[in-house]
Predict the 3D structure of the following.
Amino acid sequence: MNMKPTLLVLAAGMGSRYGGLKQMDGLGPHEETIIDYSIYDAVNAGFGKVVYIVREYFLDQFKEMVAKKYSSVKCIDGTPLEFVFVTQELNKIPAGFTLNPERQKPWGTAHAVLMAKDVIHEPFAVINGDDYYGRESFRVLADWCHAHESTKGRYCIVGFELDNTLSENGSVSRGICSYDAQMHLSAIAEHLEIAKEPDGKVYGNNSVTGETHVELDSKALCSMNMWGFTPDYFAISEEIFKGFLEKNIDEPKKEFYIPYAVDVMIKQGTASCDVLSSPSRWFGVTYKEDRPGVVAKFAELVAKGVYPSPLYK
């Protein structure tokens, strides 16, 4: 098979809770970033291009980092790994809409993905730049991309067991997946303030129903923003974004998220979404207090031989 899927990395987040640009924070034994490990796993799974979604104000920094780190990285077929940079800014919206001057942040993850519509023409994966997904997750996603090279209107999400995504340093928000017997996504319900309590059970607030302190299934599959799409996604998503803006253009804080866009597609019948599962344990740096634990986990993975050290030479 000649097609190599693309990895789209969402790296435009401001890192407000973390207190800095966590996308560039060196967490591995040789200052490797989480993105470094994601790219390593993606390349070994068969991905051939990386598209970064960044902000204009740190674009040059990012380009410099990539040129320095990845210049010798080869795809599994021996060809050089390709890199493309695209910026997400709040004024990048369809014609006919006037931006609210009070708005300070871009329009969310689904808006970020739309920024890549002119540079991606093959099946692609979407990940967060500050989340570690594990090599098995990228293999699952690469297999799906290869199997859907010629399909339209069928996408996927890689779900992680809720218990494998919690932080010891504060509550988190997670989208809990609902799906049918064929593992087709039916809904993602956003839950806020999820945490494991002293009784060992997991509780959170359901933002859809308004229920608070709801006990959650620790093995429920949740979204960590790891998706697989085919290029037809862009045109469908852009139409949904226009509908979103018609209702929310004057709202300074409303954001257009991937789960919202996919949910609309499912309800409209324009797309279906396969729910894939990964045995990998997710981890990330939601809070700066998470950092030492993540550093220790990468050291452990290196010690077990999962990754070489340094990762890139």
